Amino acid sequence: MFITEKAPACVTIPPPLGYRGTVNASPRALAAIFVEQLDAPGRAGIDAGADLEAVLARATASARAARSGLDVPDEILVARIATALRGAKTTTTIERAIEALQLGDLLLACACERGDRAALAEFERAFAPDLLAAVHHVDRSGNHADDVLQVLRQKLFVGEPGGAPKIREYGGRGELRRWLRAVAVRAAIDAARAVREIPVEDELLGAMVVADDHPELAHLKQASIAELKRALREALGALPTRERNFLQQYYLDGASLQTLARLYGLTPSAVSRGLAKARATLLGQVRNALMARLRISGRDVDSLLGLVQSQLELSRSMLDEGR
User: Fold this and answer.
1) CA 54, 57, 63, 66 torsion: positive or negative?
2) Which of 66, 249, 260, 262 has a 20 to 30 A CA-CA distance from 49?
3) Do 101 and 126 share a domain, yes or no?
4) pLDDT (average), residues 162-177
5) What pLDDT score does 52 carry?
6) CATH code assigned at 241
7) Is residue 123 one of the residues assigned to a domain?
8) CA of 209: how far to CAs of 40, 87, 248, in Å?
9) H helices of 209-293, where?
10) If pLDDT is split at 50, 70 and 90, which confidence band does 198 have?
11) Are residues 161 and 106 in the same domain?
12) Quick one: pLDDT at residue 314?
């Protein structure tokens, strides 16, 4: 079942003094609240001839048409719209910037944060199946999916101790469904990582290191194999965080290119290039280390690195087969 406790009120921005959040605020009052909650560039971008009261009236009507029956006062919705425009890099008018937002999704997010029962029910109906699928994509066993979803709900609508509800971070510039999927994947990856007893670097190392008795290594001394492992460990530790995360999430967590693209706000092709760069950087550093430390031919070093890459691909293919 979904969380039934009343969540904290939507307080993305502290309301003006004496503000009580009634639904009967005048259009002029709504415009004043909206302008107050904009950042300086947003205020500067308001056209002197714009009928802001009419723009906001259309925006609130559009949001309520998309998500009817939700208990969010107009003042709070207008303040949420204003905060969603903060930091926006746009040369368009305020009216067009507002129209570009997912207004219905912003309304639903704010209503869920306020603990509105109708909103929470709509969230479950509209998004729970997608979130479950996103979690299963990471946790292929399905053993922890329900637990992950419950923790996710807690984070979204109640927040960590001393923190704000995660749903408050949704800015309405993309679909709520896509934003939630990315949050769910991140939660599932964190949960999977939390139960591991082996450090991430060691797991990656284990996925890449070739068995000592591999037939193609028979002519190498044990010292050479030990140097390979040492070089791999050092190269992994030297990788930038994002590149190491790409390798970890793709080869250990089994995240797809599409999943990683949603998680990092990239395209699948950009993720693929990031993975290729991480592999190339890693193997290049290992090659340099081995050439400096070992008295073996360049052909033998390249053969070793080819085996390492094969082990990575084998690790990934085994994850895909297990789905």
Assistant:
1) negative
2) 66
3) no
4) 89
5) 86
6) 1.20.140
7) yes
8) 54, 46, 15
9) 222-238, 241-247, 257-264, 268-293
10) very low
11) no
12) 56
Nearest to 111 by CA among 24, 10, 6: 10
Is-contact 231 286, C-beta < 8 A? yes
Residues 207 and 294 in one domain: yes
Identify the domain containing residue 220 by its residue range: 200-321
Please give the structure tokens belonging to residue 47: 């056209």
Q: Which of 177, 250, 149 is nearest to 208 (CA)?
A: 250
Residue 153 · residue 119 · CB < 8 Å: no
| Total domains present in the chain | 3
Among 93, 60, 97, 193, which residue's Cα sits nearest to residue 139? Answer: 193
Distance, CA of 228 to CA of 311 (rounded, Å): 14
Tokens 């070992």 belong to residue: 294
Question: Are residues 257 and 167 both part of a single domain?
Answer: no
Express each pLDDT in 261-312 by its tens digit.
Answer: 877 778 889 989 988 898 888 888 888 888 888 776 777 777 777 776 676 6
Categorize the per-residue pLDDT at 51 as very low, low, confident or very high, splitting at 50, 70 and 90.
confident
Residue 96 near residue 58 (C-beta atoms within 8 A): no
The half-sphere exposure of 243 on its side-chain side, counting CA atoms within 13 A, is 16
Q: Is residue 7 part of a domain?
A: no
Please indicate, yes or no, whether residues 293 and 233 belong to a single structural domain of this protein: yes
Name the burial class of residue 60, with classes exposed (0-12), middle (13-18) and buried (19+) by CB atoms within 10 angstroms of its CB.
Answer: buried
In-domain check, residue 271: yes
Average pLDDT over residues 49-64: 88
pLDDT of residue 3: 35
One-letter amino acid for residue 35 of the chain: V
In a domain, 74, yes or no: yes
CA-only gyration radius of the chain, Å: 26
Q: Is 199 left (phi over 0), alpha (psi -120 to 50) or beta?
A: beta
